[in-house]
Write a structure and sequence with these properties.
The protein is of the alpha+beta class and 187 residues long. The chain has one domain: 4'-phosphopantetheinyl transferase domain (Ribosomal Protein L22, Chain A, Alpha-Beta Complex), CATH 3.90.470.20. The protein contains 5 helices and 11 strands, in the order βααααβββββαβββββ. The chain has a 5-stranded antiparallel beta sheet with strand order 1-5-4-3-2. Strands 6-11-10 form a 3-stranded antiparallel beta sheet, covered by helices on one side. A hairpin with a 5-residue loop joins strand 7 and strand 8. The longest helix is centred in the N-terminal third of the chain and has 23 residues. It is globular, with a radius of gyration of 16 Å.
Length: 187
């Protein structure tokens, strides 16, 4: 299983007030809140933890085929500035994150060391992001002719109406998007 999440930091700054009353308490554990509030850059730390939780949620949803909103159940711990792990119940997901001034992108997996293919996309404001992302995936994977999501929002590749057995994750937010697939599943 693999999951990913991208946060457009400019859009997050303009649309989300993470400092509003109750936001941190609803989304983050007490330890995560302390880490955020003691950080040199609390804004980036909020969205780092958020992207880790979202990426792990996508892994969890692929495995258990159920959707729910419970971000505090996903507990983030940092190993380094860009490496971490996320636990929920008895599951652990490992994460790696790219942090830039424009976006935060996290990839999570069940294994600590995983090989994956990743493609990053920048959108213009006139683009239908989902269509553009799906077309980019199909251009990347020559053996697929469609991308479809199931009732849980999990994306799958298809070739001639047959599901291709690979772990794929998509994400887009604001001007940025990307997809990631576990390597050695599709070659």
């Amino acid at each position: 299983m693999i999951g990913n999440d991208i946060v457009d930091l400019k859009l997050a700054k303009n649309q989300s007030n993470w400092q509003r009353k109750g936001f941190l308490e609803k989304q983050f554990t007490e330890e995560e809140q302390k880490t955020i509030l003691n950080s040199n850059d609390p804004f980036s730390q909020v969205w780092l933890f958020w992207s880790m939780k979202e990426a792990a949620y996508k892994c969890y949803t692929q495995r258990y085929k159920k959707r729910f909103f419970a971000p505090k159940k996903f507990i983030c711990k940092m190993i380094s500035k860009t490496l971490g792990y996320i636990s929920i119940d008895r599951e652990v997901y490992f994460s790696t994150t790219i942090i830039t001034e424009n976006y935060i992108h996290t990839i999570a997996s069940e294994r600590k060391e995983v090989s994956f293919d990743f493609s990053f996309i920048t959108f213009d404001h006139k683009t239908d992001q989902t269509t553009f992302l799906n077309n980019s995936i199909l251009a990347f994977f020559s053996g697929a002719d469609t991308v479809q999501k199931d009732k849980f929002g999990i994306p799958f590749l298809y070739n001639q109406q047959r599901k291709i057995p690979v772990s794929l994750s998509t994400s887009h937010h604001g001007n940025f998007g990307g997809f990631v697939i576990l390597k050695n599943q599709w070659t």
